[in-house]
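Memo to structure team: turn this sequence into structure tokens by end of day. - J.P.
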Amino acid sequence: MSPPKYMGITEFMEGMAGNLADAPLRPHYRSVATLRRDIAQQVQAYVQVQLAPLGVPFKVWQQGASPGGLEPVLAFGRDFWPDVAVEVSEIPTIAVAVKLIAPRDDGRGALSFLLGETIIYTRVYPAVLAFALDRGSPDESKHWWDPDLRAELWERYHIRLIIRR
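Reply from structure team:
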């Protein structure tokens, strides 16, 4: 029997991001609360598969459903709460922010808010996952800098950005 495999936060986040990028989602969402619940279930399933066999204690918390374990980030005189959070060995480890971009929305405000929000979460959480379900109509010719921006978000802030369409 081989010893348990421990992974670093980068590998863990890559796996979780890949899982969320490919996860089955509903064709329509009427509210971000329903999307948040679905994302929380996907995060729970991924963390369960990765950490339970190692005997590592963890909890997945969801805003509105299980607020007791969410660790707020205090900044600018306010409390900022992630939509979903993963606690490993009783330590806040991963924050997840979820946004739903409506079909008629250009998405600029939602994406700007999502990225600003996730930067704030890095004050408490070592890694952050920013998830947007984009039902809008972005201009497909305007993605030149996306790979550079995604890489910089991870290198500077440990933020993984997922935009699903």
